[in-house]
Amino acid sequence: MYHLRRITIAAVVLGVIILLATFLPRILNPVPPSKEKQEADQRWINTSPHWLDRQACRWVGLCGLLHLKSDPPAKPKPKNKDDGGELRLELRHIVSEEPAAAIRGGRSKNTGQLREIPDYVLNYAPLVHLYSQEFFWPSDIADHMKHVVPDLDEDIWPLNESQPLTLSNLNELSRELGFMHLNSKDDVESRPRWLHSRRNRPVAFDNDDEIEHEDGSEPDGGFAEDTTWFDVDRDHPLHRISDPRKLPGGIPRAQGLARRSRVFRRQGQEQQRLTFQSAQDELNAKNKPDESGYSRAPATLVLVDKGSGIVDAFWFFFYAYNLGQTVLGTRYGNHVGDWEHCMIRFESGIPRAVFFSEHEGGQAYAWHAVEKRGNETQIQRPVIYSAVGSHAMYATPGNHPYVLPFKMLKDVTDRGPLWDPSKNLRGYWYDYTATKDDEGLEPVKENPDEPTSWFHYKGTWGDKLYGLDDVRQWRLFGQYHYVTGPQGPKFKNLGREKVCQTWRCCIIHSIAEGKKGSWHS
């Protein structure tokens, strides 16, 4: 009986593992893999030098079990290390970068044909709360080029290359040599300083008052749209929306009672709206930005004219490293290079909506729904919260579970250091209708000498997916410890009609509504 009980327990455990291996990857990746992806996956499994590991990977979904280990955000510093080394390194960077910062926007070739950044774009620029205990801070893409090499054999790209990789030649070299990945020169698990970019951390925002953000629930009738600003591009121009029931001379008598009931209901809704607005004004008054918020790492601003007075302002934020989240103590989703963005859609200079990028998706909020901070001129700027490690962007501080049940997988945000990207940026105008691959982007008049080659680079900004022969890699139930780095801003669907990245787009009209689901749901 004793042995029968042990065999039963072992069978149940094995059955649970097989069940998880079969169905969990389908839940996490609901799109069935194509034949090409299946073949690529088999080649990846075959990189393991161990027969047992390959079989466990194929049949049970447990790949690289011998590689499992802790993956802390930072490595402990050696005790005999000179404490002043990092300070001297930062001072050298500051001294060497001062002239470059002065040159940006200083020289001018032919600025007469370049367009300026509209005032309203900077007036309504987002403010980003980075996580207070973040380990990987904003990075400069120009500095990133110094620490990566093309994914090529050394005989094609020697380590002492005579022509360094820069933002000005990235796309041309990629097309000439055929590389599609930028690999880190250093072992990322040694946590080199450039991954952390601590010198780019903004000054902490001084806000001792813990203010609970009010629920921004708004009545539908209070925000009836009069134009189709939410679905516009040059092929689908803006349309005016008119209600055919709004006829001169009043309304039919049969609708009188219904109208009277709506009037009383809207009076109550209007009172709720005024109460919420009063609370929002109080919040904005107490949370005015101070003069801090500058980061040495410039943000990237890409402006896209959709026609009909619609302009999308894409704010891109780059980080040298994405630290994945942990599930049951095991970390998944690390990668070198991390592009995040938000987008503000303007109609005739008036902000209408804000898109927050979150992993492979994101959420779009109506302008009235997002938290804002006011400055001395009473212009309200949207507030964004960046998650620790993943840098996913959210509309509120706190926990943000996604994909897995029981909050097993979640992003965390708080009111950490405040980053004002409008104080240091690279600005561009982009014409998404350009027919050639290397055309359509031009710098703004304020920084006419900024390079454009990097924008058209089709490859990834980080390492290619590590194979199973790499001791840093594992895959459990379809989820990798290290994944391939992301592509750049050009491949974020900048010409989209909708506010969201995909056609599946619903504009959220309150914070409470946004909390009900994640980008995945």
Could you characterize the architecture of this molecule?
- By secondary structure, the chain is an alpha+beta fold.
- 24% of the residues lie in helices and 20% in strands.
- The chain has an eight-stranded mixed β-sheet with strand order 19-18-5-6-9-10-11-22. Strands 2, 12, 13, 14 and 17 form a five-stranded mixed β-sheet that branches. Strands 1-20-21 form a three-stranded antiparallel β-sheet.
- Strand 10 and strand 11 (361-366) form a beta hairpin.
- The longest helix has 31 residues, at 256-286.
- It is globular, with a radius of gyration of 26 Å.
- Residues 81-109, 208-223, 243-267 and 279-291 have low confidence and may be disordered.
Topology, element by element:
Blueprint: H1 2-28, H2 35-45, H3 51-59, E1 62-63, H4 84-103, H5 119-123, E2 127-129, H6 141-144, E3 148-150, H7 170-177, E4 182-184, H8 193-196, H9 256-286, E5 299-307, E6 310-322, E7 326-327, E8 330-331, E9 335-347, E10 350-358, E11 361-366, E12 372-374, E13 380-386, E14 393-394, E15 398-401, E16 410-413, E17 418-419, E18 425-430, E19 441-443, E20 475-476, E21 479-480, E22 507-508, H10 511-515
Parallel strand pairs: 2-13, 5-18, 11-22
Antiparallel strand pairs: 1-20, 2-17, 3-4, 5-6, 6-9, 7-8, 9-10, 10-11, 12-13, 13-14, 15-16, 18-19, 20-21
